[in-house]
Design goal:
By secondary structure, the protein is an alpha/beta fold. About 45% of the residues lie in helices and about 15% in strands. It has 10 helices and 11 strands. The strands form 3 sheets. A 6-stranded parallel beta sheet has the order 2-1-3-4-5-9, with helices on both faces.
Length: about 300
């Protein structure tokens, strides 16, 4: 991939896609195309094929997905499976037809079995059991994309990487307290509570632990993976934080330390998830942001944009 390569980013308006487009342009890539729902409905196979034929990208970062948080995944299993299967199948097939030089596709840490066959999680463990039941439909759709990429390499010589992502957060995320992921959901809860001068009610007991990563760092990692890695590659910052630690950081940033209340009757999600990052580290990638810096930037972005929408 050189500076003049034609690069397509699906999900270009979303959390990862928007950060990736900005990073690519900052690094001097001159021909970067973002694909959002306005440009093409990836659920439509014919429309997807036509879009790819018109753009004819050399490299594809596939970041588009139908994404929910814990509750959203539990309440929308059928839609999550169906729509992600269609989106992924259409994008991979269109990439094959225009003979891309490489596709790097976003997976999810949810593809790993539960309980974990070992820790930290290694890429060869993905198919060693069933995913966590709270997010199994989404995970199976993402597993199917991995199987499709392997099949397309064998049948058509497709060059690919598959990113097994940790919990990401940043600007342009889904800030939804019911269906969003943990960090954007928490940010909205803190923001709403601050406006309404109420306590912040947080699900679970804060004991669940995750590897969290700021989207700007994820963008840099994706470029490194596209350039230097193949096959499934774990994506993470290398440090595991409890949900309680994240809540404490946000409480400090929002100046609401005394306003947090926990609801232990709500789900925690999977108790612990950490990744072996040997393949990612071999590309030379390293994070530019601390977890607190990323949270503070995301909080400031959301406060500004939430205010602008009023």
């Amino acid at each position: 991939m050189d500076k003049k390569s034609k690069i397509l980013v699906t999900g270009g308006a979303g959390l990862v896609g928007s950060a990736l487009i900005e990073r690519l342009k900052d690094q001097g890539y001159q021909s970067v195309f973002g694909l959002g729902r306005q440009e093409c409905d990836l659920l439509d196979g014919v429309a997807t094929q036509n879009f790819f034929q018109n753009v004819r990208p050399e490299y594809v970062f596939h970041c588009a997905a139908r994404v929910y948080g814990i509750l959203g995944n539990m309440n929308n299993k059928g839609a999550s499976f169906y729509e992600n299967i269609l989106i992924n199948t259409n994008v991979v097939e269109a990439s094959r037809r225009v003979r891309v030089k490489k596709i790097t596709a976003m997976g999810t840490g949810a593809v790993y079995p539960y309980p974990s066959p070992g820790l930290p999680l290694k890429e060869d463990m993905i198919f060693m059991g069933s995913p966590h039941p709270a997010e199994d439909s989404y995970a199976h759709a993402k597993r199917a994309m991995l199987a499709m990429l392997r099949a397309y390499e064998e049948s058509y010589g497709l060059n690919w990487a598959y990113v097994v992502s940790c919990n990401l957060f940043g600007a342009n995320d889904k800030f939804d307290t019911e269906n969003g992921h943990v960090v954007p959901s928490l940010i909205k809860k803190f923001h709403d509570a601050k406006l309404n001068k109420t306590d912040v009610l947080v699900w679970g007991n804060g004991s669940a632990k995750r590897d969290f990563m700021y989207a700007k760092d994820a963008a840099g990692a994706l470029i490194s993976i596209m350039q230097k890695a193949t096959g499934p590659v774990n994506l993470g910052g290398g440090t595991v934080y409890s949900i309680r630690q994240i809540v404490d950081y946000l409480a400090e940033i929002a100046e609401m330390e005394s306003m947090v209340k926990w609801d232990p009757l709500r789900p925690n999600g999977q108790d612990y998830r950490a990744y072996d990052l040997s393949k990612l580290n071999a590309t030379g990638f390293g994070c530019d942001y601390s977890i607190k810096e990323g949270l503070e930037e995301t909080w400031n972005w959301y406060v500004k944009n939430a205010s602008n929408k009023k």
